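Re: How this chain folds, sequence and tokenised backbone to follow

Filed under: protein folding, tokenised backbone structure, sequence and structure records.

Contents: The amino acid chain and a row of whole-number tokens, matched residue for residue.

Body of memo: The sequence and its backbone structure tokens, given next.
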Amino acid sequence: MKENMLAMNKKSFLGSVCAAFALAAVISSCGDGKTRSTGWEFSRNMYDPIAYNPDQPNNNFKNKITAQVPPAGTNPIGFERFEFANSLEEYERAGRELKSPLAVTQENLVKGDALFHTYCAVCHGKEGKGDGPITKERSVEDSRGKRSLETFPPPPSYQRSDAASSSRGGLMADLTDGKIYHTIYYGHNSMGSHASQLSPQERWQVVMYVHELQKK
């Protein structure tokens, strides 16, 4: 009996202590506004970093600038430098010197097929004939509500049976690895650059698939 009474008294005491702490917390949070405590700060360096901000002066460098440029000749991790400029001369040089590093495998062809239909077929068409859905005549409305017919200029066909010529000379069916890759990287005429959409390996997979379309 005495043991039960002691246990009950302990529980009662602990309950009273917890209630007192809870009451103190409520009272302290509902002050009169004249004296407010910001409380304890946790992980101050999470919002007041020790590190320099990019725009701050920095005495650790000779030029006193925090945001340093990369050393000459270095590349960011995962970045592959393309050593051909965006010009007709460099396009022709890429056609002579640049070859695909990928082996012609079913896996690469399937991936190239999927990428081509995702990024290219809207203009070039599913079979590379230059008849993608964006080239179809469609009705558009201007800011004044006036409607007119608009046609996007279709790209030339890759297929040999169509004997379509590139605007930079030669048949589309004869375009080499380097010329196709250069065009994907920089774009040409109405086609914009796809360098940011496709990784180097993905570009080569598209090149591989385009060669399959050229054979048709």
Notes: Strands lie at 138-141, 147-150.
